[in-house]
């Protein structure tokens, strides 16, 4: 059987690295993508189970970035059957204490990376899928959203807004890409112990975060990766349009 090919954006660390590892263990050939830290991405790549993986770099938040990322993944792997839009940034921007210049700059950068990046990557992926000999059927797109879209992000409103928009984009595209046989889903993780979240775990905060979940622990990247790997599979077609909570029952909706 032909091995399926997956592109994981932001695969150089944190949740993306765990997703790349899980997909490789499931038999995929994986393109590990990062923005700038190719040494970290290479270390993830070298540790992946199996062979035939690839390294892709590029800023998802710049015009042209998405095209280059899809083109590079397709050139190295031959195609992309699974796109995991995981790369994302978080910006602290409390409205009452942030200058207007910083407020504007943060909004634009977060929208560029967290929302326009995935939208552009999906456009270029669909363009590729429609042209490939076997057609688009069976492809999967999994977007990494956030619990913050539902619970609110009082000190990071652009982050919360872009994740809510990414969930909405997931649902719209699940409808528009269904006729092509492409399933589109999202996960909405709660707090996960990664570089992005580490600064929020200082002092008493760590215990408070642990208590958010009745399971009494803080999530590891592998907790999210397990859900993404399942959604990436061919058997997950009927989940299309779903935004799956991966938050240890810390926020129920
Ligand atoms: N950690 C949490 O608590 C949590 C909770 C809910 C949702 N999430 C979401 O999960 C995803 C991964 O989070 P994480 O905690 O694993 O983050 P992380 O440890 O900060 O890693 C972020 C990854 O994204 C890449 N990246 C950042 N900006 C980029 C850009 N402009 N273009 C291309 N790649 C870029 C980074 O590449 P470089 O290393 O090259 O910069 C890195 O590989 C994000 O979408 C985040 O919003 C995280």
Supply the number of structural domains: 1
Fraction of residues in helix: 40-55%
First-to-last CA distance: 40 Å
The CATH homologous superfamily name equals NAD(P)-binding Rossmann-like Domain
Radius of gyration: 17 Å
Strand order of the largest sheet: 3-2-1-4-5-6-7
Chain-averaged pLDDT: 97
Overview of the molecule:
- The chain is α/β, with parallel strands linked by helices and 253 residues long.
- The protein has a single domain, classed as Rossmann fold.
- 45% of the residues lie in helices and 13% in strands.
- The protein has a seven-stranded parallel sheet, with helices on both faces.
- β2 (29-34), α2 (38-47) and β3 form a beta-alpha-beta unit.
- The longest helix has 32 residues, at 100-131.
- The chain is globular and about 55 Å long.
- The structure holds NADP nicotinamide-adenine-dinucleotide phosphate (NAP).
- The site of NADP nicotinamide-adenine-dinucleotide phosphate has 29 residues, from α1 and α7.
- This is SDR family oxidoreductase.
- Keywords: Oxidoreductase.
- Pfam families: adh_short_C2.
- Belongs to the short-chain dehydrogenases/reductases (SDR) family.
């Amino acid at each position: 059987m032909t091995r399926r090919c997956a592109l994981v954006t932001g695969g150089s660390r944190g949740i993306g690295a765990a997703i790349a590892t899980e997909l490789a263990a499931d038999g995929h050939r994986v393109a590990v993508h990062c923005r700038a830290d190719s040494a970290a991405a290479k270390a993830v790549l070298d540790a992946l189970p199996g062979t035939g993986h690839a390294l892709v770099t590029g800023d998802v938040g710049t015009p042209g970035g998405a095209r280059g990322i899809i083109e590079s993944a397709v050139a190295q792997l031959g195609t992309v059957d699974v796109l995991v839009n995981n790369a994302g940034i978080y910006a602290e921007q409390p409205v009452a204490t942030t200058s207007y210049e910083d407020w504007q700059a943060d909004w634009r950068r977060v929208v560029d990376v967290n929302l326009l990046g995935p939208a552009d990557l999906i456009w270029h992926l669909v363009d590729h899928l429609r042209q490939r000999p076997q057609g688009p059927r069976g492809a999967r797109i999994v977007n990494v959203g956030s619990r913050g879209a539902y619970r609110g992000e009082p000190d990071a409103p652009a982050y919360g807004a872009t994740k809510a928009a990414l969930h909405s984009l997931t649902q719209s595209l699940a409808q528009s890409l269904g006729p092509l046989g492409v399933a589109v889903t999202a996960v909405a993780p709660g707090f996960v112990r990664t570089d992005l979240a580490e600064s929020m775990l200082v002092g008493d905060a760590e215990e408070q975060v642990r208590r958010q979940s009745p399971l009494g622990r803080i999530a590891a990247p592998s907790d999210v990766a397990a859900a993404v790997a399942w959604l990436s599979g061919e058997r997950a077609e009927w989940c299309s349009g779903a935004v799956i909570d991966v938050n240890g029952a810390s926020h129920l909706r």
